[in-house]
## 1
Amino acid sequence: MVKPNRDETLETLLVSVNRLIRSALQATGHTTSTAVWRTLGILESEEALRLGELATASRVSQPTMTRLVAGMTADGLTARTVDPDDSRGQLIQITDVGRERLVAWRAALTSTVGPLFEDLGDDDWDVLHHASALIAARARTETTA
């Protein structure tokens, strides 16, 4: 068997993770836009951001982010505060309710993916744990030991 090169490995990883997430999203039955969850995840790790910064980080246009934030604020997931560095601007931050919903959404995703991996042995789980720690470190994502 020919060993794949590093670019092929990274491509397989990205494509596979994307498919896994898409499959998990469909299985949960949640109708909330993935942009909402992505935005809450950004706010969870980046703390409060200005609307334009949040739009850039979430890969949506500023008008789209304006609508997203309005809906998330109405749902109690985010809150707006005055930017201490510029009183004309506002900062968007995740609320406790937003954090709770994000945790619940991630748990729903995890439970839908779990059955795909339940036949793995301890050695394979060790490999997955190590790989996820490596990826998390490169993506600056917090993990638990």
## 2
Amino acid sequence: MLSKEIAQTIVKETSYNLNRNINIMDKKGQIIASGDPSRIDDIHEGALEVLKNSEALIITSDQKEVWRGAHPGINLPIIFQDEIVGVIGISGNPEEIRELGGIVKMITELMIKQKFIASQLEWQQRTKEMIIEELLKNSPSYSTIERGLNLINIELQSPFMTLVIQLADRTITNQVLTQKIEEILGKNNGLVGFININRMFIAFSGFTQSEADNKLNKIHQEFKKMMLKFRLAFSTPFQAMGNFSQSYIDCDLALKISDESEVFISYAELEPKALIYKIDRAWVEKFTTRIMNKTLDKYADTLETFFKNNLKYPANSR
């Protein structure tokens, strides 16, 4: 857990603020980060003593020769999850820096904890996006999906619904957007992830129709509140996990065939238009050539307007 990268970040932050040299040693007593680069990779015998006894060690100027690789100062154990993961040393007159020791130790342990939490969240999100990738395959591996769900302690239950959000340029991070939606969904009520740089995939799980409608509206309102440029499409409910791929295709089609000004798009409302769109174009042309006559051709513009208005007669044409 205490990597060189984390240790160097801690040294950089604390050394600058305290105007003191800080050293961080690993579980072998080796200096892995220091304000004095020449000391990196040296063995610090004072740190070995701290690791052995689990207690702070004060080294005065007349004791520095006793502990090879050590300078006068205070050396303290770094504790994470009830285990010593390293040692932090503050160089200087022990009497002058004694009070700083506890503060530096606390800051160091908090930074390690914060880094650990961030890495866990990153790992969990990667697992979720791996599951989403598998769900969207034509022939998903249900054993792979199940293993992934078990790792993040989520169980997907029918009925399901797919939501796709297409985003324009933004300054809000993927992590913030993902967390916002997960807060709305509630724990273990679905999956949220990015499938490309500006497209989010959300799988609803186990909601009644009224609950799903409520969550959809909350997500819609939250994105509007964040002043984001987006378009949101959602599928019809379905029961089988194997239908996620088709539901995503439906949402993608809804985004394509709806008006660009629409931001909240129901595939169910566009389904008649979508069914026509899905018909094989070669078959359509053959059928059109066979049945179109001069009389029908004369009304082509009228029919086109009729279809553009979702089979409703335009009010201003009456």
